[in-house]
Design a protein that fits this description.
This protein is α+β, with helices and mostly antiparallel strands and 186 residues long. It folds into two domains: 71 residues; 115 residues. 53% of the residues lie in helices and 24% in strands. The chain is built from five helices and five strands; from the N terminus they run H-H-H-E-H-E-E-E-E-H. The strands form two sheets. Strands 1-5-4 form a three-stranded antiparallel β-sheet. A two-stranded antiparallel ribbon has the order 2-3. It is flat, with a radius of gyration of 24 Å.
Length: 186
């Protein structure tokens, strides 16, 4: 199990390193493009080269993460839970447990959006026929600063909870998580 965790952590760091390399390449490409847009006559006539403002790494990172978080100011997640399957005798306690379960499901969905999902898949093929197909997912992360938007009944036997999270907090959460991963490897 520990070996699997180390491989998973190494894979995450490799992906993070690739992301940093891409951000650096994007920054360099945009800086080179700005320099190339100056006509040749202007380049020769100038004694002091123009100051080319480097593109901050944060803006490059934000442009790469933008498709994940999109351009919304906040991300939202909704969780659901069924009242009748809650393990209690009284209807009032079942409702409270369903509300709590729907809130936890919303937090899980929010965590998936912030950190992504770890997916393990196994397919067994024999005689050119799929014998079994197994998927396991895992979500890991810390969420803080989430705002409870609503808790509402959805139908007769289900509760729905919606949470929202500011996009700036998402950046902070990811940075803290990646810092924790880096410190665990050492």
């Amino acid at each position: 199990m520990r070996n699997l965790t180390q491989k998973s952590t190494a894979l995450r760091l490799a992906r993070f390193g690739t992301l940093l390399a891409l951000m650096g390449a994007l920054t360099a490409c945009q800086t080179m493009q700005a320099m190339m847009e100056t006509p040749e006559k202007e380049k020769k006539a100038e004694v002091i080269p123009p100051v080319v403002e480097p593109i901050p790494v944060r803006s490059a990172r934000a442009s790469m993460i933008a498709p994940i978080v999109e351009t919304r100011e906040t991300i939202t997640a909704t969780g659901y839970a069924v009242v009748s399957i809650q393990n209690h005798k009284t209807p009032a306690q079942k409702r409270l447990l369903a509300i709590r379960a729907s809130k936890l499901d919303a937090y899980r969905a929010l965590t998936e959006q912030v950190y992504g999902q770890h997916l393990d898949a196994t397919t067994t093929v024999a005689d050119m026929t799929v014998m079994s197909d197994t998927f396991r997912t895992r979500v890991e992360g810390v969420i803080y600063g989430a705002v409870l938007v609503s808790i509402t009944p959805a139908g007769d036997d289900t509760y729905e909870t919606t949470l929202s999270l500011d996009a700036r907090v998402v950046d902070d959460l990811r940075a803290l998580y990646l810092g924790q991963l880096a410190s665990n490897i050492r």
